[in-house]
Specification:
single chain; mainly alpha; Arc Repressor Mutant, subunit A; 6 helices; 8% strand
């Protein structure tokens, strides 16, 4: 590997490691003000919105979470009536999870509230900074999704391949 490429990779790693806590702090602060749900619960709701019905293992695969952690999150969401378990009529061992209408409504309201708070924060930036942030964040998202898709094709389970 060329030295310049190694420096660029090291720089990208350092930037990504630095970005995650900044984003987490911003979202967690907003989230705590809007709901008693934790980020993991919102991730579960988000993946169920995208995929409608999934098994516990599929949720775990898509979110890179161990199945016991997913089960704990789903149990809390069931208690809040935000998701429901669906048992396979042909095989009771298979349990799927689906978001409820309440879960969808609550998730969208939380997402809207957080978006409004972020909008307020970003409005303090100049037009050029907003354009740069918009382009850079889209590029980072696209590249990370590419990495995740490539990585998921190497995983033994094929539940994540259609991302």
């Amino acid at each position: 590997m060329k030295e310049k490429n190694k420096i660029s990779i090291d720089s990208a790693i350092e930037n990504l490691i630095s970005i995650q806590p900044l984003l987490s702090k911003t979202f967690t602060r907003s989230l705590r003000a809007k709901t008693n749900l934790n980020p993991g619960s919102l991730y579960v709701l988000g993946v169920l919105i995208r995929h409608e019905t999934l098994s516990m293992s599929e949720i775990g695969c898509k979110l890179s979470m161990p199945k016991p952690h997913v089960t704990s999150l789903v149990d809390k969401l069931i208690a809040e009536e935000m998701v429901e378990r669906l048992y396979d009529p042909n095989d009771r061992r298979i349990v799927n999870v689906r978001i409820t209408e309440k879960g969808l409504t609550d998730f969208n309201a939380i997402k809207f509230d957080i978006s409004q708070e972020l909008r307020h924060d970003l409005e303090s930036l100049g037009n050029e900074e907003i354009e740069i942030l918009s382009l850079a964040s889209k590029q980072v998202k696209d590249i990370l999704l590419k990495i995740i898709v490539e990585k998921s094709t190497c995983i033994n389970s094929n539940c994540c391949k259609e991302e």
